[in-house]
Give the backbone structure.
Amino acid sequence: MRRTGMDKSFKLTILHTSDTHGCLLNEDYSHNVRVSSGMNIIANLIKSQKTKNTILIDTGDAIQGSPLLYFHQINQHKYPNPVAAVFNYIDYDYYVPGNHDFNYGMSYLEHFIHSLKARTLCGNILNESGEPLFEKAYDIKEFPGGPKIAVIGITTQYIPNWESPENIKSFQFVHAVTKCQEIVAEIKEKHHPDFMILGYHGGVECDLDTGERLVADTGENLGFQILEKIPEIDIVLTGHQHRIICKKKNHTIVTQPGGSAQFVGKVEVEFEQNEQWEVKTMKAAMLSAAGYAPDPRISELIANVESETQKFLDRTIGVVPDDDLHITDPFSARRYKHKIVTLINLVQLRASQAQISCTSLGNDVTGFDKTITIRNILSTYVYPNTLVVVKITGQALREALEKNAEYFAIDNGKIVVNPRFCFPKPEHYNYDMFDGIDYTFDISQPIGRRVVKLSRAGQNILPDQEFSLVMNNYRATGGGDFHMYRGLPVLKEISMDIAELLINYIREQKEIRVPDPQNISVVLNGK
């Protein structure tokens, strides 16, 4: 029987950010203009939503992805970590590492974590001894006169498929679902919580309503499987895919707040205490940063490093006499291989002395102005990748090209982008273009049989021929599901960032004129 005289209620607010990627100010560094998002705006949004009973958590990819952080990591001994300063000011409770947080090396990540007031949670990345690599796997948070809340951190175990080996040493990346099940069992046995929250730097692999698979079953994104197999978890806060998700699956709330500090996920839970604390109501919302004013204190906190970043970005390093390296149509830039792609490949070939090179364009790229600045470089090549040269056979090369040919589809008789490269996560960077070979894709042919011509120096490439191929380290490990690259013999590794190689090349050449080899054809029905 209910004992109404003892009934108590408690309201908990959970606020969730993810994949902020160093967007600390409402500043578009590519175009040097103000935008309506950024951590300085998110700060005021969060301030407006916080109560005395709030948990604020970020689920990773916080310290890579903006020119500000590129500048900081090469000058890290001069300035405190700006993301840590902002996170501490906003007063985060928890942080779960993301895959891109490893990109600048373990020392950079560790320094960031040690600078945080927030607790770092990650249960499935282990050190050589089998212990959590970071602070702890989970935390038990108790509010005065309120319920006992368990907060768990898990990161996608797919990181070894992308990351440079030296950045992850001999760490163990345990299956997200398996480890999460173990952690939940331990929490239940030792702590008997009233409520469980999972912060997961990983995405949702299936449609939450229909169960239809959205992405390949690689283990990179396992949010749906977690929901199906671990019903004890009450809230799953996801990230990684940069999607906007705010739904209920069975009894569990699922959120994902996009990327680049544009949204905050909010979950409100009302508890009622009878014999124990029980959930009375639970509702979620996705809050946009648009409409909030920037918090000037954040600009003050990072003023020194931000000012020097702007000076760094505006340094002129070369000119484009023909003014033909600006990208105005991203689709055409990929279908017809823009000269900016050829330039990147030429720089990679020069640095590596390989026979063949491949590269991609990021989701949003600008190309170069007539006067080239470092800002142009970092807005065109946005990733902190290095180079790897592998030995590849003609057969494996053809397989890689067939994989790239999947980027295209047919809609109403026209060649378009395959929708799966746009949703659930934009992945235009997983389409590579090559120099050093000539090839033709016929999109009217079935997937897997679209490479209708493949040659080098006028000679057809045979399956057993061997070549040296240079690519970025992400692709060399099979990133983007290019399984044919995994395990290929490595001939050479070049540790300098590709962006830095481009900067040095342009400084040396001063005037940049890029040939147009027209070595790629993407056709329909042979024409």
Remarks:
- Residues 176-191 form the longest helix (16 residues).
- The chain is about 25% helix and 30% strand.
- The radius of gyration is 24 Å.
- The CA atoms of residues 368 and 521 lie 24 Å apart.
